[in-house]
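Let us begin with a simple case.
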Amino acid sequence: MTPREKFIQALRREPIEGHVPHFELVMFLTMEAIGRIHPCHRNYEQWYQMSAAERRLHLVDMAKAYIEIAEKYDHSAIFVHPNPGPIGEMPDDIESTRAILETIRELSGDKYFLMIHGDPTYPIPTGDTMMEFSTMMYEEPEKIHQGTQERVAFAKKLCDEMAKHPGLLDGWCLCSDYCFNVNPFYSRDMFAEFVQPYLKEILDYYRAAGYYSIKHTDGNVMPILDMIVDAGPDAVHSLDPQGGVSLSKAKELYGDRVCLIGNVNCGLMQTGTEEELVADVRRSLREGMPGYGYIFSTSNCAFTGLALSRYELMHKVWKEEGYYGGPLCK
């Protein structure tokens, strides 16, 4: 069974053997880990000045960065951030997006589950736009609806283009953040009006096209997690313990309906002791693995500035103890 096949089984909440699947939304520490610059850390604006030969070399190097990280840390899936294009946004250059996916497939075959960003819903606005956006929800809600409808239309267009190339893409990661550590940005009524219908619409569209979907949001998602699950993603990431999210509680409430991903405390990875990190990794595995439908990862990503040794300690615990039938899965 390939890592990709095992990842899909976890998304389906089916029984699996051996290690619980593992991946990271982003593994930024590529320079230290494998000696390659992460695609997101490159100047994508220079792409359009490159010759065809330079672009090909660039694509191969980016593809190798993704593949070598997946191989080194036993990741089952790769979240591809197309370059050119800013991180965290749906790619607008469809041709170059297809090119990087094709290059990864050329070099690794069907070994890994490949996904790209595809979330048309509005995230928490930035500090510069928060007042304007918040006022608009009350005074000009039609503008938010219109903007989201346009974003949904583009997401469907991107999906249709990817679907013309079967086997290239496995799924979509929807990365609009909705929550602060204390509470969601949207009230439940606002979420029901401005987010949930469009989230369900695009998730239904992806599923009808044969794709899987993972919904990501940091922070305290518990007050709206039922509404996210009702929208129909195959999995929810990142179950942020710094936002007070309990993996065991989420498993109890929704584990029979959606795959759960994440929950290793990124704060402890950065500032906790090694003993605290090891204990938290074991807790996440112990709470997530029973009953299947769990994929192991951090509660955000392996972010720039994180000590690689801490990530490798987390990986070591997973490697030695994170398997079905082992001491943490009772």
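The second case is a distinct protein. As before, the sequence precedes its structure tokens.
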Amino acid sequence: MNRIARNPEISAALVALGLALGAAYGTGLLGAVFGGVDLTLPIAPGHWMAWTRAGATFFGVIACLLVAMTLWQAFRPQVPRTGILGIETTPGDRLFISLLGSAFINLGWLGLMGPPLWFALALSLVYAAAVFRWV
């Protein structure tokens, strides 16, 4: 049994840290922590990446999901199960499959319909629920 599973204080601290970082990143408060750096500006002039609040929230939520899945596996190890695809999957595998499929749903929506992505988000949530239920 690993140290995290034996010590719930460490697990609670990791969850709190993940949630706090995700929330701080999404609300723009993390820039204040790093000396007032504005995370919505490009990394370098003319560079392609600028952190928007939506983008930062997206990656913060994924980070929190990964922390939560890690802790779930540490406290309650899951037995792989065979679903509709005919392959054995754990909850972590199903999370990966749902994130990958959701990326394709959103990219397809952008390519065919354009913004906004609210309906694509709803489709992604339905897809993720189906993956966790039947895959």
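Strands lie at 81-82, 88-89. The mean pLDDT is 75.
Keep these points in mind for the review questions at the end of the chapter.
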